[in-house]
Amino acid sequence: MKKRARASSSRQAPAATERLATGVAGLDTITRGGLLRGGIYIVAGRPGAGKTILSNQLAFRHAKSGGRVVYATLLAETHGRLLQQIRSLSFFDEKLVGREIQYLNALDAVTDNGLGGLLQLVRRMVRDHEATLLVLDGMVTASQLASSDMEYRTFIRELQTWVAVVGCTVLLVTSNGLGTEGGPEHTMVDGIIELTAERVRMRLLRRICVSKFRGGGVVEGEHTYVISDDGLRVFPRIDAEHAPDGAADATPRPSGIPGLDPLMGGGFVPGSTSLVLGSSGAGKTIMGMQFLAEAAERGEQVLHFSFYESPGALLGKARRLRLPYRKHVESGRLVIEWQKPAEPLLDAVVHGLLEQVDRVKATRLFIDGFVGFRTSAFPERVSTVFSALSEALLRRGVTTLISDETRELFVREVEVPTANVSAIFHNILFVRQIERQLGQSAVLEHALWVMKTRDTAHDQRAFAFEITDRGVRVVGPFERARPDDSPSTSSGHLASVPLGAVAPRRTRKGR
Description:
Helix content is 29%, strand content 26%. By secondary structure, it is α/β, with parallel strands linked by helices. The protein has a nine-stranded mixed β-sheet with strand order 5-4-6-7-3-8-9-10-11, with helices on both faces. A hairpin with a 2-residue loop joins β18 (427-438) and β19 (441-452). α5 (107-129) runs parallel beside α7 and α11 packs parallel to α13 (382-395).
């Protein structure tokens, strides 16, 4: 013990910018590198918010990276019960308990000898264990047992002075002061991490906020997090980050849809984000699959991110359309990711998408179903989040096509269902089905408009297209019938259809 005491007393105070990584996914991003070594941080949240899981997750990560931890509780529950509760989490490692991580119950020390007794106990444990991280869980008990605010302030000040000398980082875990001006310790510590959990409709929505952080900037505001078998995972708001615009080759690439490229000035510019908007059954998914298959055939890595159809259903559809999806899936050139759209966390969807893009090293991306973003827990943030996502994809040089569905099957007005997002897209394609009387029968014909291209000229006329056993094919403008027109083809007698009767009357960018 004496040898350890001499080693501890000789430790130098850490440099002001030296960081302690938390090991919690996303939290180091918010704090821009982790906590300052030798600092004191409050982790505040009401019961059930995940404070104890977070502090234990940080403790085990710190121990696995070579640090030593003292975890002191001021709670009535035993250490056996605490360890039983976290044992099922993936970060838990039995071999570290009692060696690199020392657990102790400090409740008797504070009840018998006050805050002075607590300070003596943790000093001795940190010195003897040569700890570089100290967790005091249940600090609301210490504040309640303090005889006055002045006594509590004195305790925090002495703790702060001591840990700065020995280079030990401290977490004070408490439920005191959350959502209010806070206790006296809030003005003295180096940082405050707040965890909240609230019911939104039928789900529990969790948010984290670093409301104070000395010694550096943080990604401000609230961010969502989830608790799983891996502990906490934080999803930093992508719309809170700013990065320079990406630069990409401006030479258009083929779309993979026969007849479409001449209408768009040559195809899709690398890094662009495009929208294909239309009713159900108008061919949007097929166009997206052709868009990916064309690039995969040229040797590019591509990603199909679906909110609607499972990988099995898409492979079956590709087989019927004679698209080489299975071949490219087996080679790893094409990856299909299925995200069920039932009230996902918007930030979680965006982070998952970008992680897949980076993992696949995708140069082309098809997102089948913009509705997956609109049905998230934060629909009011869709436009700003998607703008940031578009910039992130542009920086990566990813050419993106997204499908979205109009509210009516036989729409006469072009309206992007999500307000304020149409300006984000470089290109907008509008597809629709038109009912036409053919003798005694009514038939559906398909029409396409290039509503918008950015920095390239485009054909503003309406064009007919077919959905065949080989996919979508643009066959010609409405005002000109094809030489092989016949009543049996879906594009037959287009010249007889008044253009004004089928063209949308106006374009609206938002509601």
